[in-house]
Amino acid sequence: MLSASERQQMRDLLGRGLEAWALTLSEAQWLRFERLTELMLEWNERMNLTAITQPERIAVEHYLDSLAPLAFGLIGEGMGVVDVGTGAGFPGLPLAILCPLSAFTLVEATGKKVAYLRQVVKELGLTNVKIVQGRAEVLAHDRRFREGFDVAVARALGRLDVVLEWTLPFVKVGGCAIAYKGLRGEEELPLGERKAGLLGGRIEAVHRFVLPGTKLQRMLMVIRKISPTPSRFPRRHGQR
């Protein structure tokens, strides 16, 4: 369980960061973030969910970072959002807490992480979240998911060209993929631009920012889907 001081420190840090982005949380949303932190730390003792275990760092480096698209108006209520390779639930879970009228599908291949995510969704009462187990390069060929979402998000998933191949096939024409990147993302832009073109997309915007209250530099790359993705993408694991 979190101590009273840890809870207050989390609220102070996350609250100031969100205020800088003109975002606020209800009391119910605060309680969900606190319980999410407790669950993540409890499960982290049995499996590798995160290397960040200090509650104050979790508040900023996981939660605030995950919520960055809301600061730029990239995700709105009523959207269908898929989080590809969600891992411990980032960015999907924080986004789902703040956007209760949007539907979130979290894709994860590892069974233990899927079990954790399902427990979190149950305990937090997140009725707008669905957990799907499977590999992105397989699920993106499934008619239930292919080109079925307004937005695809991916955080810490890999190089930009790989991220695009695993996300854009999920996105409807007119929708977008959002790739969370650090400073190294700049180096990946040329290759990403070429890959986006092959997948029916184009890089529409790159939002560069510093996480409020820190010196941590981040980027959000927005790739607009302008035409259907060719059926050969994404390629199965091991294919070239």
Structural commentary:
- The protein contains nine helices and seven strands.
- By secondary structure, it is α/β, with parallel strands linked by helices.
- The chain has a domain at 60-225: Rossmann fold (3-Layer(aba) Sandwich).
- A seven-stranded mixed β-sheet has the order 3-2-1-4-5-7-6, sandwiched between helices.
- Strand 2 (103-108), helix 6 (111-124) and strand 3 (129-133) form a beta-alpha-beta unit.
- The model has no long low-confidence stretch (mean pLDDT 96).
Strand order of the largest sheet: 3-2-1-4-5-7-6
Q: Biggest sheet, in brief? A: 7 strands, mixed
Low-confidence stretches: none
CATH superfamily of the domain at 60-225: Vaccinia Virus protein VP39
Question: What is the percentage of strand-forming residues?
Answer: 15-25%
Q: If classified by CATH, what would the architecture of the domain at 60-225 be? A: 3-Layer(aba) Sandwich
Any idea of the CATH topology of the domain at 60-225? Answer: Rossmann fold
Using only C-alpha atoms, the radius of gyration works out to 17 Å
For the record, give the distance between the C-alpha atoms at the N and C termini, rounded to a whole number.
47 Å
Shape verdict: globular
Determine the mean pLDDT: 96
Detail the topology: elements first, then pairings.
Layout: H1 4-20, H2 27-44, H3 55-66, H4 68-71, E1 80-84, H5 92-98, E2 103-108, H6 111-124, E3 129-133, H7 136-139, E4 149-155, H8 160-167, E5 171-181, H9 185-198, E6 201-210, E7 217-225
Parallel strand pairs: 1-2, 1-4, 2-3, 4-5
Antiparallel strand pairs: 5-7, 6-7
Helix pairs in contact: 1-3, 2-6, 8-9
